[in-house]
Design brief:
Blueprint lengths: L7 E10 L2 H5 L5 E6 L2 E2 L1 H11 L13 E5 L17 E5 L6 E2 L4 E8 L10 E5 L9 E4 L10 E10 L1
Antiparallel strand pairs: 1-2, 1-10, 3-9, 4-5, 4-8, 6-7, 7-10, 8-9
């Protein structure tokens, strides 16, 4: 008997720009990727609810946010968001999230020069203007963002 396996590949991408000018010109000084993460129970349950026609806040341009924090506490599916003392959730950039082709959902937010200036260690996608329902939590060290820099955070989920 053949078994079916579903898999979600997650890539967290951080693009780092020295300043606003470099950001506007699309000239990052560094692009980093990290893979693997934990899908959180609350997010998986809501995704299935939405897919089956149930009610809940969608992960659309009006509601979805990417979040970054400074905790390196291990990922656990029972968590309900970022764990750090410093954390900031950003609304979607224009045109995001993207979905509906190539079995992907892509979420992207931009952190300006005065935002999230701390050590970036954890990442998530949620769906609210206040604490929403988080799809995932990823722990990876992407360094310290300093004042004046602009960083973008992109989280891509690919269903295999």
């Amino acid at each position: 008997m053949e078994s079916e396996r579903a898999k979600v590949k997650t890539i967290v991408t951080v693009e780092k720009y020295r300043n606003e000018k470099d950001f506007l010109e699309g000239k990052p000084y560094k692009r980093e990727e990290s893979q693997h993460n934990i899908l959180l129970n609350e997010g998986c349950n809501l995704l299935w609810t939405l897919a089956c026609g149930g009610t809940g806040t969608p992960y659309d341009n009006a509601n979805a946010r990417v979040g970054v924090g400074d905790s390196n506490a291990g990922e656990d599916p029972a968590q309900t968001g970022l764990q750090g003392g410093n954390q900031l959730y950003k609304s979607m950039d224009s045109g995001y999230p993207t979905y509906g082709t190539l079995r992907k959902m892509v979420f992207k937010g931009t952190y300006g020069s005065a935002e999230a200036n701390w050590h970036w260690l954890e990442y998530t996608v949620d769906n609210g203007s206040v604490a929403g329902v988080n799809i995932n939590r990823k722990v990876a060290d992407h360094g310290t963002k300093t004042s004046g820099e602009v960083w973008t955070l992109t989280i891509t989920f690919t269903f295999a």
